[in-house]
Amino acid sequence: MPASAVRKPPTAAAISESAQAGAGLRTFARIADRWKLSAADAMALLGMESRSTYYELLKRSRGSREIKGLSKDQLDRLSYVLGIYEAIRVVFPHSEETRDRWVSRSNAAPMFAGRSPLEIMRSSMIGLYQTFAHLAAARGW
Fold this sequence. Notes:
- Helices cover 62% and strands 0% of the residues.
- It contains seven helices and no strands.
């Protein structure tokens, strides 16, 4: 076959940041429900201070594929929460109850020092990162 006849693999269409934000927020809302997070906890994880803004974003994410208005910090936080959720699913594959309650239970691991992962995650972006890194190490990434 001549070199000019070599077929190139199809390229995936680029997904806009606003489409990623919309999908991420819809998924975040389902995770928050599974973890039984209060609005205050959910807002802290996303770095939001305004309850009305939080609920407005959730409402818009349900009604539209694309969401604009999330900061880079909020997109990063959203990414960490989704990664933490997926890592928990891998680390605890056989117990839905354990997966759903892991973030709110006290944890004896040194980085948590008896606190719940949610306490660490709420504290800052660094807390989200540390929780993700802890689970990544447990997963063997």
